[in-house]
Write a structure and sequence with these properties.
Length: about 260
């Protein structure tokens, strides 16, 4: 697929209650697809607790004995950052070709992704906000204790965090949206006390709306990614299609929601 086609299409899917290992593998496979084809947007959720740590995070940050005793898998994601426990929450990954406007820089991608997620959740009635600047936080093995520009916040507590993987031909941003938050479980797995965690981390309190929120994220982000790509394509080609490409309905934008 040429760059014009990459900017005008998207491959999206939702995976609820499937294999966590396969979902994390599919995130990285999305990088390979986006390098040669369209962006890849994935939203997924797991029905049992899974401890997910950053690609370079020390295993010493995790109480492996506790995880074994309680049948909690410990998995590494492809992006950096610190640990979080997924349990009915939503993982969101977006892989983009480097030709996409959002892929132009680390902060640019965090901002574009964060704004898209914030406005999507606000439209669902959740008053989340981006953080202006970087408020920092304690040195912690728990991702959400650090308050930075890569997150979303509800009443000054973090509810969404993200990290990136950048390659020569594609980039991926991966985020976790907390629909519920078990401070005691995070404390048992990672160490910081539950009272401290509750001071800095919260959730949407919306586990019962998991499917609704997942579908809305896919619909909203897909439209934003494609629309931004079309604008870039129009700027690049002056509104004219490159030779050999035919227009499709509604200005040529189309999204493939493979697993919806």
């Amino acid at each position: 697929m040429n760059a014009y086609g990459q900017l005008r299409d998207i491959q999206s899917s939702i995976s609820i209650g499937c294999d966590p290992r396969q979902d994390l593998r599919s995130d990285l496979e999305g990088l390979l697809i986006a390098a040669e084809g369209p962006p890849v947007l994935r939203v997924y959720s797991w029905d049992f607790p899974v401890s997910v740590i950053g690609c370079h995070q020390p295993l010493d940050d995790v109480d492996l004995a506790f995880c074994r005793a309680n049948s909690i898998p410990v998995l590494r994601r492809g992006s950096g950052g610190r640990g979080v426990i997924h349990h009915g929450d939503l993982g969101v990954s977006l892989a983009l070709p480097v030709s996409h406007p959002w892929a132009g820089g680390i902060r640019k991608l965090y901002h574009a992704f964060g704004v898209a997620m914030a406005e999507t959740l606000q439209n669902l009635g959740f008053p989340v906000a981006l953080l202006q600047g970087d408020a920092g936080g304690p040195d912690s093995p728990v991702c959400f204790e650090h308050h930075g520009h890569d997150g979303l916040y509800l009443e000054d507590k973090r509810v969404f965090g993200s990290a990136q993987v950048r390659r020569q031909t594609a980039v991926m941003i991966h985020g976790t949206l907390l629909l519920g938050f078990d401070a005691d479980l995070h404390s048992s797995v990672f160490g910081p006390g539950p009272a401290r965690l509750r001071q800095r981390i919260t959730s949407l309190g919306a586990a019962h709306r998991r499917h609704e929120i997942a579908f809305e994220i896919v619909e909203s982000l897909s439209a934003r990614v494609v629309d931004t790509g079309i604008e870039e394509a129009n700027d690049t080609w002056g509104g004219r299609l490159p030779a050999g490409l035919a227009a499709t309905d509604e200005g040529g934008a189309h999204a493939t929601n493979d697993d919806l």
